């Protein structure tokens, strides 16, 4: 009788996810608690396992993958992308990389709407707290804004969505309730479910030139870590947008050129931007975006620490079981 596959988890996850994994495999939990796991412990823990479930702050490089051995067939991460995983080594060894199923996560939609509202809200007086937010994005959801004077105007705006998957559709549904009058989208082909929200399929150029609010819902990096769309939202794209355009980064992917975005915001090519950031993700700050008053941040990592973390982890656990089964592991 063949043994059940073994998965090594680098950090504590909700018990519901562990219970889901136990239905098909044995679970090995990291001994350390807290935000940091010593590399030596990871190298020791992965030996002989069939799968690894890591956090976005864990570096799963060639050494870790080799230490796991020939039985490793799946590397999963509690993240939207796999920047911290050596995807080239995984590809070479035939190891499947699994990321969180963002398209089915309503928590991500909630955070996107929050980020959008943060970007469109106009305060009558200068907000002295903004530098606090920009210096530490975690402060965004805890800042005390009671008593301020706000005005939110969403009616008669055109929403543009780049890549209309389930995530984009959910965002479109929410924004229709806020008064969005027209919805445009661009994808590799027309999406049948777009009819549910009355979204119009348009060219990429039309999406840029006619959207008042533009949400980027592109796929994160592919399993090989590359994409043909890399950097397509650059200075040329920003020049085609309205000067009043609000750009919202929904999912982390390499399609957005942060350096060109900084220039576009500083020179007034677009009105403002809302970025999906994480504490360990320093990319937006490399080009001084945090110094701009028209660039807003929301730490999507917080969704893994709120109620949505359980939902995400269980969905990921099911993805892992499916991947293990597809790779010939008896469950």
TrEMBL record:
This is Uncharacterized protein. Signal peptide: none annotated. The keyword Oxidoreductase applies. Keywords: Oxidoreductase. It holds the Pfam family 2-Hacid_dh_C. It comes from Sinanodonta woodiana. Residues 7-325 form the D-isomer specific 2-hydroxyacid dehydrogenase catalytic domain. One of its GO terms (molecular function) is oxidoreductase activity. Belongs to the D-isomer specific 2-hydroxyacid dehydrogenase family. PANTHER family: 2-HYDROXYACID DEHYDROGENASE-RELATED, GLYOXYLATE REDUCTASE_HYDROXYPYRUVATE REDUCTASE. The keyword Membrane does not apply. Residues 150-300 form the D-isomer specific 2-hydroxyacid dehydrogenase NAD-binding domain.
């Amino acid at each position: 009788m063949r043994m059940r596959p073994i998965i090594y988890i680098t950090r504590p996850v909700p018990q519901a996810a562990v219970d889901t994994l136990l239905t098909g495999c044995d679970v090995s939990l990291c001994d350390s608690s807290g935000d940091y796991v010593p590399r030596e412990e990871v190298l020791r823990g992965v030996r002989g396992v069939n799968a690894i479930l890591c956090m976005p702050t864990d570096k799963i490089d060639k050494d870790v993958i080799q230490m796991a051995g020939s039985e490793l067939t799946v590397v999963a991460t509690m993240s939207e992308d796999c920047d911290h995983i050596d995807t080239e080594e995984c590809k070479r060894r035939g190891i499947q990389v699994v990321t969180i199923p963002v398209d089915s996560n309503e928590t991500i939609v909630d955070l996107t709407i929050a980020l959008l509202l943060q970007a469109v809200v106009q305060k009558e007086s200068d907000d002295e707290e903004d530098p606090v937010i920009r210096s530490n994005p975690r402060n965004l959801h805890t800042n005390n804004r009671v008593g301020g004077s706000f005005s939110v105007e969403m009616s008669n705006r055109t929403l543009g969505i780049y890549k209309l998957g389930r995530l984009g559709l959910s965002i479109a549904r929410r924004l229709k309730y806020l008064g969005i009058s027209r919805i445009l989208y661009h994808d590799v082909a027309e999406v049948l479910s777009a009819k549910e929200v009355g979204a119009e399929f348009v060219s990429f150029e039309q999406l840029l030139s006619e959207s008042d609010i533009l949400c980027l819902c592109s796929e994160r990096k592919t399993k090989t870590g590359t994409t043909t769309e890399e950097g397509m939202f650059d200075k040329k794209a920003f020049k085609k947008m309205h000067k009043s355009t609000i750009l919202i980064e929904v999912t982390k992917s390499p399609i957005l050129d942060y350096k060109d975005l900084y220039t576009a915001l500083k020179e007034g090519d677009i009105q403002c931007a809302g970025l999906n950031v994480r504490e360990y993700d320093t990319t937006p700050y490399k080009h001084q975006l945090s110094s701009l008053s028209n660039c807003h941040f929301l730490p999507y990592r917080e969704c893994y620490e709120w109620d949505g973390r359980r939902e995400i982890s269980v969905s990921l656990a099911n993805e892992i079981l499916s991947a293990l089964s597809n790779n010939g592991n008896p469950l």
